[in-house]
Amino acid sequence: MEKRMQTYLTHMGSKLPDSVSRPKSLPITMSSVFDFEDVEMLDRVYAGDAPGYIYSRNGNPVHDALKEIMSQIDGGEASGVYASGMAAITLSILAHVETGDHIVAANVLYGGTYSFMKNELNRFNIDVTFVSPTIESITEAVRHNTRLLYVETISNPMMDVVDLEKMVEICKNCGIKLIVDNTFATAVICRPLNLGADVVVYSATKYICGHSDVTGGIVVTQKRAVMDKIDEIAALYGPMMSPFDAWLLVRSLRTLELRVRQHSINAMQMASYLEKHPKVEKVYYPGLAKSPTHEIGKKLFQKELFGGMLSFDLKGGETAAYQLIRDLDSIRLVPSLAGVSTTLSYPAKTSHRALDDKELKRAGISAGTLRLSSGLEDFDDIVAEFEIALNKLP
Ligand SMILES: *Cc1c(COP(=O)(O)O)cnc(C)c1O
To answer: What is the tens place of the pLDDT at every residue in 37-66?
Structure first.
């Protein structure tokens, strides 16, 4: 029967193609919802008796593809994908605590995580004690109502490696759970779940994406039941990842190992170069033999890789830092990390701008501290550019 134009506009073009060949890459299922033949089938999918999707806030085929890869590479039973690293982090924490509970966390954390713990959790009457991540200070901080220890594999911007084996040991002894933010390391370098952590969280915005074009967060859990709890809360708060972003991240993961390996090799070269430069006071990179946590990194990290992030202090302080950023040409000031190009960040005015002078000092950040995210360029070109700009400094 012939219909009117508006009806064709609303119905046509949504059938899956009739084809014996299949797309080589996973199709992007840009569908917020899925349709059913009848109520019985809808009911069976809701009950879990038939495989299927219902509504993308609760699940989408591209999410599942991303989760499948992440669970595999991180050695977990289950994964969850969300709209940002902060969503992954806050949901993972909320899934582990009730009103009146207590958390112990490392005293050097991503700014957003620190603010969430300091300013948001207290609205739920959840107390957080921030300590340096050592057995002694954690033991001292743990109370009868402590549920969680929260740490980051590599601290920002001093790039100290936290001894995750010791963190696992103390959590087991105290009967508390361990959540690790593994954003700077990725599963290529470190697998906290294999070491005994309960939950790993990522800002997928960084190395998992690697191309500075997606904001996302991922959680991988040792136990499926923990993931179910996180997802239950996630469906209520609602920070879901767009299927398109999930598709981009699947694309990105194809090259994760190659990228992280090259980022790390370039960072090691850069750290060694800067360490010898007369305008540089100090370099912070766990790959350097001098680094205070080099041995921990060697013990925990795979393939002798130490990640793509390093920091350094310029002898000329703030003036020199500002000038270097101005004089560098292809190396841009970018308040994030892990893209394909080498970038610099100025922690005192970006990631750590909420800290007062005393807190900055305690975190080891000076006015001459710069953080470098090493890219995938031919590194001779990057060193050449630095050489020109560094030698211009007074
Ligand atoms: C960027 C970052 C986050 C926050 O992730 P978003 O994707 O920006 O929400 C958390 N932890 C670390 C270590 C980060 O670098």
So the answer is: 999 999 999 999 999 999 999 999 999 999
